[in-house]
Amino acid sequence: MDQRRIRSGGGGSLFLVCVVCGASLLVTSFPFAVSRADEDPDTEIARRHFDAGTEAYGGGHYAEALAEFEAARRVRPSPAFDYNIGRCLDRLERFGEAIDAYQRYLAGRPDADDGPSVRERIGVLQGRVAEEEAARAKKASEAPPVTPPPPPDEAAVRAAEEARAKAARDDDARLKRMAAELVDAEQRKKLAEEEALRRRVAEAGRKGHALRIAGAIVMVAGALAIIATALPFGTFLKADNKISQFNDSLSNGSSGDPWSTSLDQSVRDRDTSRTAMLALPVAGIGTLILGGILHGIGTRQRANAEAEARAPASVRLLPLVSPQLAGLAAGGVF
User: Fold this and answer.
1) Which of the four pLDDT bands, split at 50, 70 and 90, describes residue 19?
2) Mean pLDDT of 4-12
């Protein structure tokens, strides 16, 4: 490949000068000429990086050109690349590195035609480096001396430590006080909730009270009606006994009016007693059943009220009846 290097011409303008050292490298590396397709891969890679670096340098992108020239030098070392690298570093004002690159170029080509101008440029850059180092040394000498901080006052240190310790104790005491207050508030809240629950349960216990009382009264009345069956039973036995005596006297051939009036009354008493003996048990049993239903409704109302009082957020079933639907609906109690 043709290895080129970037040089400066008159008036500070840039132009590219072809340096035919790549051809000599190819001639010394191979015993015979090869076609472009059989070119050494490193040579092709170096040419590609060199072309990219040349284009970047011409556009003023010196950092990009520097990277490309260094990449080309890594795969195909050449003094021409050292010169190009030096020019990029020179443009980037990295004077120390530029001097090293120029010196590598001269070491690789001590008899180069532009050797005097390169050495002259190295001298200029060395002067600039010396000036920069002198300026840095002067700035460092002119900087005010760093005064070490005074040693800490032991009394102030002890006071600060005591203040921190007191603050820590105060924080600990405050945290303990807050914890105690929280526990006390939680206990008061729990007692208030228990008292409220007790009141709700006591109030719920009064639900259905009237129905329970009415049911108990009705059941007592039913029991009395059943017990009262014994009264017409006695009357029935007495009247039936008189009628039996009258029938026995007739069967023995006796006759007389004294039994006529009492016989009529005994017949009426027997019939009335028989009706009462049949009606009173039926009425008593019906009354007992009615009282039991009333008492059960009142008991269920109390149980539901107590359950709601103990679980205010529970869900209960409420009857829902409409012309279109009859069923159960879940209702929340809050």
Assistant:
1) very low
2) 44
281, amino acid identity: P
Q: Would you say 306 and 205 are in contact if contact means Cβ atoms under 8 Å apart? A: yes
CATH topology of domain 3-142: 1.25.40
Tokens of 82: 């050292």
Per cent of the chain over pLDDT 90 is: 42
d(CA 195, CA 236): 62
- The widest CA-to-CA distance across the chain, in whole angstroms, is 187
Structure tokens at 91: 């443009």
pTM as predicted: 0.39
291 confidence band (pLDDT: 50, 70, 90): confident
Each residue's pLDDT tens digit, 69-95: 999 999 999 999 999 999 999 999 999
Per-residue pLDDT, 268: 82
Q: How far is CA 22 from the centre of its chain?
A: 68
* Residue 298 CB contacts under 8 Å (≥ 6 apart), including other chains: 208, 209, 210, 211, 212, 213, 214, 215
- The domain spans of the chain are 3-142, 209-332
CB–CB of 309/200 below 8 Å?
yes
Structure token pair of residue 218 = 């009705």
Residue range 244-263, pLDDT digits in tens:
877 777 677 655 545 556 77
In this structure, the number of other CB atoms found within 10 A of the CB of residue 6 comes to 22
Q: How far, in Å, CA of 333 to CA of 316, rounded?
A: 7
